[in-house]
Each structure stands twice: as C-alpha cells, then as structure tokens.
C-alpha cells in the first residue's frame, strides 16, 4: 500500500502466554498479523527494550506494587512487573512472527529513567523515537496499528500518530488489551474513535 505502513507493536514473549506481563490472546494474533503484513510495502515492528532497574518496574521502587501509579519527573508512571529487559528471552519478538517484510525494528523504553509507551515518542512527550522521521522519509501518510497492548502502547501510539498528522487505523482483530482496571480497554477504544481513529 503506497503511503501506508503497518506498525506491529511489541509482539514480545513477555506480553504473550506465560510472559511476565501476559496479554490474554496475544499469541493468537501472530498468524493474522503475518497475513496482514503481506498487503503493505512498509512494515515496522517495535520492541520494549528496557535496561535492568527500569523506572516502569514496580521492583525498582520501594514497597511499590505492580499496576500502582507513582509521580515521577516525567509525569505519572504506572508500574508493571519486570518485563522486556534488554537481551532476555522475554524481550524477543515471537518466533512465529514473519520478519521477512519488516524494514525496521524499533527499540523503545531504553532510558532507565523514562518510559516509552508510544512508538513515536517517550512519555515525556518530547523525546522522539525517530519513527516519525522514518515514516516521513518513506512518504507515509497513513499508519495501521496492531499488536499489544491495545489500551497502553497501541493506544498512545495512535494518539501521537494523530497529532503528527497521520490518518490512523486500529486493526481491532489484530490487537489485544491489558484491560487493567477492567473497562480500561473499552474506554480507551472509545477515546480513539471519538478522536478520529478508524476501528477496522
């Protein structure tokens, strides 16, 4: 698809079955994603790629529990179980994901003191990942998003994509959410739809 890219978000083992931050049904997405990417001339995959002791790990903060929220210098930070630590098996992309058409694998969340949900910029809303420039250089005007988690990294990526001027589609059959607390996924899908994201 000319001018159109598919972004496969964080299809890593720690977000799949038996991972430290498993998203229910994530493994089941792989065959559909493999089939979908055949229709695109530009395919990007992303990875959370955190250093040990990352700010998003509950274990990095005294007496903190996963899924709690703390205030940091870059804003409110939700805390998670340790996940996608650089170089570990959990940080690797799913073995069944077909990488032959992937032109770029983007690593994000590499700063110990700054998390990165969006594939476009880190959570300070200032520091770019470089993806916007890459897409611009390739003439992309529309991005189609899939992967995990629909209510976290995919959600914030969609919002940033809109802000950067892209036409945005969320491939709803090719994404799954954490849904913590329950209802968060439905609420955030509603926000995206109201802002102009096509739910396809």
List the helices and strands and how they pair.
Elements: E1 4-9, H1 30-37, E2 42-48, E3 69-72, E4 75-78, E5 102-108, H2 131-137, E6 142-148, H3 153-163, E7 167-176, H4 184-195, E8 198-199
Parallel strand pairs: 1-2, 1-6, 2-5, 6-7, 7-8
Antiparallel strand pairs: 3-4
Question: What does the model show?
Answer:
By secondary structure, this protein is of the alpha/beta class. The protein has a single domain (4-50, 86-199), classed as Rossmann fold. Helices cover 19% and strands 24% of the residues. It has four helices and eight strands. It has helices at 30-37, 131-137, 153-163, 184-195, and strands at residues 4-9, 42-48, 69-72, 75-78, 102-108, 142-148, 167-176, 198-199. A six-stranded parallel beta sheet has the order 5-2-1-6-7-8. A two-stranded antiparallel ribbon has the order 3-4. Strand 3 and strand 4 (75-78) form a beta hairpin. The longest helix has 12 residues, at 184-195. The mean pLDDT is 96.
Care to give the gist of this entry?
With 200 residues, the chain is an alpha/beta fold.
Keywords:
200 residues; 24% strand; six-stranded parallel sheet; single chain; alpha/beta; 4 helices
Walk across the major sheet and give the strand order: 5-2-1-6-7-8
Rounded to an integer in angstroms, the radius of gyration calculated over CA atoms is 16 Å
Q: Which architecture does the CATH hierarchy give at level 2?
A: 3-Layer(aba) Sandwich
- Number of helical segments with 4 or more residues: 4
Task: State the helicity in percent bands.
Answer: 10-25%
CATH class: Alpha Beta
Mean pLDDT: 96
Quote the beta fraction: 15-25%
Order of helices and strands: EHEEEEHEHEHE
């Amino acid at each position: 698809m000319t001018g159109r890219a598919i972004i496969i978000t964080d299809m890593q083992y720690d977000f799949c079955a038996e991972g430290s931050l498993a998203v229910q049904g994530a493994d089941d997405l792989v065959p559909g994603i493999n089939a979908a990417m055949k229709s695109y001339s530009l395919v990007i995959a992303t990875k959370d790629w955190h250093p040990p002791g990352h700010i998003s790990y509950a274990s990095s903060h005294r007496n903190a529990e996963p899924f709690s929220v703390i205030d940091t210098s870059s804003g409110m930070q939700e805390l998670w179980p340790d996940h996608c630590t650089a170089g570990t098996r959990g940080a690797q992309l799913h073995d069944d994901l077909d990488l032959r058409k992937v032109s770029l694998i983007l690593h994000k969340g590499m700063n110990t003191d700054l998390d990165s949900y969006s594939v476009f910029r880190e959570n300070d809303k200032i520091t770019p990942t470089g993806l916007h420039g890459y897409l611009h250089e390739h003439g992309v005007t529309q991005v189609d998003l899939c992967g995990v988690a629909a209510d976290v990294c995919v959600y914030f990526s969609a919002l940033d994509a809109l802000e950067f001027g892209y036409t945005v589609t969320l491939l709803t059959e090719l994404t799954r959410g954490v849904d913590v607390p329950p209802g968060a996924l439905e609420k955030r899908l509603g926000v995206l739809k109201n802002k102009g994201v096509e739910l396809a």
